[in-house]
Structure formats: C-alpha cells, structure tokens
Amino acid sequence: MHDQTIDQIEGCLLNLEKEIPGASSELFRVAYGRLRILARQIFGRGDPLRNAIDPTEVVNASFLQIINAVEQTKPTSVADFLSLAAHRIRLQVTDMARERYGRTGKKRQDPLDPDLVNSISGTSNSSSQSACGKNFWRPCGRNQDQSPRRTGEFYTC
Predict the structure, then answer these.
(1) Could you tell me if 140 and 157 are in contact, meaning their C-beta atoms sit under 8 angstroms apart?
(2) How far apart (Å, rounded) are the C-alpha atoms in residues 64 and 75?
(3) Which of the two ends of the chain, N or C, has the fewest CB atoms closer than 10 A to its terminal CB?
(4) Phi-psi region of 94 (alpha: psi -120 to 50; beta: other; left: phi over 0)
C-alpha cells in the first residue's frame, strides 16, 4: 500500500529541486504529520522523555533547522528527506532534554518569577527592594555589600 503523503512529499522535493519559491515551506506543511510520527518513534517505549516532551513541540521547535537543512542539501528522495528530518529532530530532542534535565538527568527547577517572589516577600519591584538587590540581605543583619553564606541548599545571614 502506497501512502498519498509519500507522493506529495516527492512532488515537493521535485519543486525544491526546480527551485520553486516556497517549496521548502510546502514540503514541511505536507510532511508535518509524518514528522510528528517520526518524533514519536524517536522516543523509545520506556523512555522517560516520552511523557515530558511532546512530539508536536519537538517538530515545531525543529522547523527552522529542518527547513535550513533541506534548502542546503536538497534531498532527492523521500528517504533522504526523512533521514535528514530525523537527524534534526534527534538533535532538538537532545537540546530540549538538556534544557529541562541538564546533563545529570535530574529535572531542573524552573526559575522563580520575580513578581511572585516580590508578592511573597512583600517587597516592591524596585532594584533596591527586590530579591536580587543588595538590600534584600539587610534585614538579616549583614552589611548590604556582603553576600550571604551558603549552607547546603539554603542561604543564611
């Protein structure tokens, strides 16, 4: 059974070879569903990233990389295109995993929103009163030019 999407991708690759304007964008639009399937298949069944990173998010994030690679290499077959796209998607998955988990594999804590910190601490958003300002440590009794001492995971004055 031959898939209609394969024929459409082949047509887009021919248009790309003829250097028709917008051919690479049309290729991505036609192949989008295939690329999502490919992104899902890159994650193994027991891969913990499967639940953490959405395949659609990966394909969307790798869009420009795939388009640039296609325009530079001009793949001549569907297999070449899918191989190229799979490589770019794998690179994107790796980047996203490192961004979220780092090299250690432990999930990184999201940075705190300054407005949330200020609302909890009861301070305004000015630099002298914010959690990042020097006066933040003044209530602890330390000189404002000194930084806090770190013990374990907590700062002390």
Answers:
(1) yes
(2) 16
(3) N
(4) alpha
